[in-house]
Automatic annotation (TrEMBL):
Residues 38-90 form the DDE domain. InterPro entries: DDE_dom, IS_Transposase, RNaseH-like_sf. This is DDE domain-containing protein. Signal peptide: none annotated.
Length: 124
C-alpha cells in the first residue's frame, strides 16, 4: 500500500484480518470439494512446541485431508474422539463409514453372552 501512497498502520491491517477472516473462511468452506468414499487413516508421534503428541489424520482417496486431531494420549477415547470428528466432517454419510465405525463403537459397551472379545460370534 505504501507503493500507492497510502500509509496504513499495522493495527489497522490486523483489524481487517480479524474482521474479514470469518467471511473468507465461510466462502472457502463453501467451495471445498466433497470428501470421497474411501479414507486412509494415519497416526504418528510428533513434537510440537517441545511436547510430544499423537497426530491422527484421515486422508481421502484424492489425498485431501478429511480431518486431523492432536492428542497427548494414544488410547481408545482419543481414537473415538478422532473418528467421531472425522465422521461428522463427511456430508454424504456413505454406508461404509458407519460400517467401519461400528466395531469401534461396539467396544465401548459391555460384552454380552453372544460376544467374544467385543466381536459378534456367528452362531450357524
Amino acid at each position: 500500500m505504501a507503493e500507492r501512497g497510502l500509509n496504513v498502520d499495522h493495527s489497522t491491517v490486523h483489524r481487517w484480518v480479524v474482521h474479514f477472516s470469518p467471511q473468507l473462511l465461510e466462502r472457502f468452506n463453501g467451495r471445498k470439494r466433497a470428501v470421497t468414499g474411501k479414507w486412509h487413516m494415519d497416526e504418528t508421534y510428533i513434537k510440537i512446541r517441545g511436547q510430544w503428541m499423537y497426530l491422527y489424520r484421515a486422508v481421502d482417496g484424492v489425498g485431501d485431508t478429511v480431518e486431523f486431531f492432536f492428542s497427548e494420549h494414544r488410547d481408545l477415547p482419543a481414537a473415538k474422539r478422532f473418528f467421531r470428528k472425522a465422521w461428522s466432517a463427511t456430508a454424504d454419510r456413505i454406508a461404509s463409514s458407519s460400517t467401519a465405525a461400528r466395531p469401534i463403537m461396539r467396544r465401548s459397551f459391555p460384552a454380552t453372552p453372544n460376544t467374544v472379545c467385543g466381536i459378534d460370534r456367528d452362531e450357524r
